[in-house]
Amino acid sequence: MSIVQKLTLSLVAMSFFVFGIYGAIHLRAERQDLRVTMEQETQILASSIQVSVENALRDQQLDDVQKLLQQLERIDPAIHIRVYISDNQVIHSDAEIRDWPDSLEDTLLQIARKGETSLLYFPEDQPKLLFFSQPFIDRKNVTLGNLTVVRSLEPMNRDLQATERTILITLASFVLVTSGLCFVLVRLTVARPLKRLGQGMRDFRDGNQPPLPLPVAGNDELARVTLEFNRMIAELGEAYRQLEVETQHKRGLQRALQNADKLITIGQLSAGLAHEIGTPLQIINGRARALIESDTPPDDIRRIAEILVAQTDRMTRIVKRLLDFVRYRPLDPALCDVAVVITEVLDMLTYEARNKDIALKFNQADDLPRVKIDKDGIQQIVLNLVSNALAAGSPGGGIEVDLHQDLMLKAGSNLPALRLKVSDTGKGIAPEHLTQLFEPFFTTRADCGGTGLGLAVVKTIVTEMGGSVAAESRLGLGSCFTVDIPLRA
């Protein structure tokens, strides 16, 4: 319901309430005034007639009394007069024909016999007749009977009904006129400015620029609200322009920070690249020296040559990965046998493990499915973890790589996953260092050429695959790294 309808209906209800009460009070006062006037007129009329009736009865002229009553009824048909004489004789005009209830007739007769003065209405709830009775006496003050004047109240009731209709018509006319005026005035002075104000707010909400100031007319509350709205629009417009400038400035800073961050990341990857390429270069160097210094059978030469080719291919992929990172390339998962991928890496590290007298063992489940995974990422994870285990190991120790299918908890659900565990019997990791293992550039082997990027790279690759990596270690007893990677079809 609109504010115009609410105000109009409120005015209509208030008008009906106020003027309805006023009309009812006015009608009641009018009825009371008419009754008082009619009672006074009736008593005066009865007193006037009483003198004539007493004189006529004193002279025993009953016919004169009846003629007097007939003349009075001809003058005013609404007035009827009865004369009750003490000998139970009743004189009234011949024109009076009234069918009054027996109770009323008995009441009038009893009043006359008692010689009382009485005023009563009949019926009591909605009276139509007024009765006034008073005794008349002779010269010796002896009561001779009662004179009863009966007046019809129909003229008074007609006047009251006419007054009631006038009040209702006046009330309805007032309500209609005032409601119509209220509707028009409220629509012009309240609804229309509010509609413009609402449209201005919608324009400001939906538009990219602040709307034009709204027109202001008058000096009432709505005009002041409109002025405040225009000031608010102006201030918001200025704030909007300042925000736009600051946003452009912020975007420029963000682009500069992104470029700087990329350069920093490239620098980190370059250090990691040196670390990643350094390991296979050492392997290649070791195998080449073995070929030079030893009398190797042709089959072993071929196997070593294949390893050299695989390592150079791997270095090529690492360089390509760095270039792809500069351009940002997502992982490239493909269906493959993860056990075969891991075996290729372990074959590459077998020579180094044998030189350090460390047993390298690979355990794999028989029911492993072919999965869709990034092959280079897996090789890099295994290479970094096993290289760290070799660096931490000592002669006579061992490294076990275990691969099987298990469940991993992710987002409150258990998902099928590949679980890769790399455990060693090396010197272990101090408890205070466990929380920093995967931070870039954190290393405990700085004096041995460690860069602190191997585990950070493992963490990054595992995270990109949607998996997790955790480390457990006991100082002097060895370490175990567990990698969970969710399975994909």
Could you characterize what this model shows?
It is a single chain. Helix 1 (3-58) runs antiparallel to helix 4 (154-206). The chain is built from ten helices and twelve strands. The protein has helices at residues 3-58, 62-75, 102-114, 154-206, 221-293, 298-327, 338-355, 375-392, 431-434, 454-464, and strands spanning 79-85, 90-92, 118-122, 129-137, 143-152, 334-336, 359-364, 371-373, 398-410, 413-424, 468-474, 478-486. The mean pLDDT is 81. A five-stranded antiparallel sheet has the order 2-1-5-4-3, sandwiched between helices. A five-stranded mixed sheet has the order 7-9-10-12-11. It has 489 residues and is an alpha+beta fold. The protein starts with a helix and ends with a strand. 59% of the residues lie in helices and 18% in strands. A hairpin with a 6-residue loop joins strand 3 (118-122) and strand 4 (129-137).
Keywords:
489 residues; alpha+beta; five-stranded antiparallel sheet; five-stranded mixed sheet; 10 helices
Assembly type: single chain
Helix and strand element order: HHEEHEEEHHHEHEEHEEHHEE
Number of helices: 10
Percent of residues in helices comes to: 55-70%
Average pLDDT reading: 81
Cα(first) to Cα(last) distance is 60 Å
Residue runs with pLDDT of under 50 for 5 or more positions: none
Beta-strand percentage?
Answer: 15-25%
Q: What is the gyration radius calculated from CA atoms?
A: 60 Å
Shape: rod-shaped
Q: What structural category characterises the helix and strand content?
A: alpha+beta
Main beta sheet, described? 5 strands, antiparallel
Lateral arrangement of strands in the main beta sheet: 2-1-5-4-3
Number of strands: 12
